[in-house]
Amino acid sequence: MISERVQELLTEIENSTVSTKEQLEAFRMRYISRKGVVTELFDQLKTIPQEDRRAVGQELNTLKNAAQDRFQLFSTQLEEQSDNGAASQVDLTLPAVPNQYGSIHPLTIVRRRIIEIFERMGFNVSDGPEIETDWYNFSALNFPDNHPAREMQDTFFVEKSAGEVKDDVLLRTHTSNVQIRLMEHKKPPLRSIMPGRVFRNEAISARAHCVFHQVEGLYVDKNVSFKDLKDTLYHFAKEMFGQDSKIRLRPSYFPFTEPSAEIDVTCFICKGKGCNVCKYSGWVEIAGSGMVDPQVLANCGIDPEEYTGFAFGMGIERITMLRYGIKDLRLFTENDVRFLRQFEGA
Ligand code: PHE
Predict the structure, then answer these.
(1) pLDDT (tens digit, 9 = 90+) per residue, 129-178?
(2) 100 CB contacts (<8 Å, ≥6 apart)?
(3) Residues 138 and 254: beta-carbon distance below 8 Å
(4) Is the beta carbon of 311 within 6 A of some atom in ligand 1?
(5) What are phi and psi for residue 138, nearest 5 degrees?
(6) Angstrom distance (rounded) from CA 330 to CA 315
(7) CA distance 322 to 18
(8) Which residues on adjacent β-strands are paired with residue 248?
(9) Is 313 in the pocket of ligand 1 (CB under 6 A)?
């Protein structure tokens, strides 16, 4: 009777498998613990006739050892599994999955390049707030009270509390606010560029966005002249668009510069011959500029009799579009990886 039961249990043990801690515990309860089947059989040993007891005892010992060996094996297997985790599933002979490198956003590439060029000419980088007061964005820059740029269609005013617009606080419409803050806080000589985000209340299209980036430049010192402005921007154009680039200045108007000029560079796509990027003129506009209006210097506590300065401002999106032949401004903010991957390694 007992012998048959032992045989049965031996096969059961041999065929058993364990893959979780719970199953291991169940195995221990059934075959090893004091309440298990094997102990139960040992208890029955007393009922066996004396002459058979020794043989049956041996069989039972074999069964007990088999159960313990198996238990030992299962425990080590489970331990190894949890140690290696998924790593044990990795096939080291397979070819490696190639690394996917991220790419730098084209606006960042161009901003860094602009900064690099001006840094080599002795300009440092200044920063200022994006939420500004009317003074720093407009008044100190000589914008007359009725200037159209102050009106709602251009400027985002900040709500003081729900529904109550405070027309004194706004999102800056250009980086020129940093010009004022810099001149207020530091004495000339000042030579700085100011990259940053600007905001204008415009409908989003291929050519306009309500958030974009500018780099403004400012140089204030004794005897700064219009020639310095021309030389600086000529050097910039050659570094940015190629050594054979030429610049031309067209008279323009900004409330905070006098005289003012729009700066064009020879179209680097067609080299001045005429193409659809330059609209067959051979020139593309890259910046607004001018000599800092004496009134603006005075507004910031700088004596216009002693100091003069020039300023310029350019759109980073515009320069990037020109440089890479990008036709739609919206691509910059859509985060389409097919667009962004084209700048890998740039
Ligand atoms: N702030 C001007 C703009 O946003 C650009 C500019 C800056 C022009 C400095 C002249 C001098 O259009």
Answers:
(1) 999 999 999 999 999 888 877 776 688 988 776 666 666 899 999 999 99
(2) none
(3) no
(4) yes
(5) -130, -65
(6) 15
(7) 67
(8) 264
(9) yes
Q: Write out pLDDT tens, residues 202-222.
A: 889 888 899 999 999 999 999
Given this model, what pLDDT does residue 146 score?
82
Q: Judge whether 182 and 126 are in contact, CB under 8 Å.
A: yes
Whether the bond into 259 is cis, omega within 30 of 0: yes
Model pTM score: 0.71
> Rounded CA gap, 102 and 81, in Å?
35
Q: Which CATH architecture has domain 106-343?
A: 2-Layer Sandwich (3.30)
Q: Which two tokens stand for residue 244?
A: 């054979």
Tell me how far the alpha carbon of residue 214 lies from the centroid of ligand 1, in angstroms: 9
Q: Which residues contact 28 (CB under 8 A, 6 or more apart)?
A: 36, 71
Distance, CA of 61 to CA of 140 (rounded, Å): 100
The torsion region of residue 163 among left (phi > 0), alpha (psi -120 to 50) and beta comes to left
Residue 289 CA to ligand 1 center (angstroms) comes to 6
Q: Closest residue (by CA) to atom 10 of ligand 1? A: 289
- Domain locations along the chain: 2-88, 106-343
Binding site membership of 176 for ligand 1 (Cβ less than 6 Å): yes
Query: Is 312 near ligand 1, meaning CB less than 6 Å away?
Result: yes
pLDDT at residue 159, rounded to an integer? 77
pLDDT score of 100 more than 80:
no
Q: Is 293 in the pocket of ligand 1 (CB under 6 A)?
A: no
Q: What is the mean pLDDT of residues 40-49?
A: 87
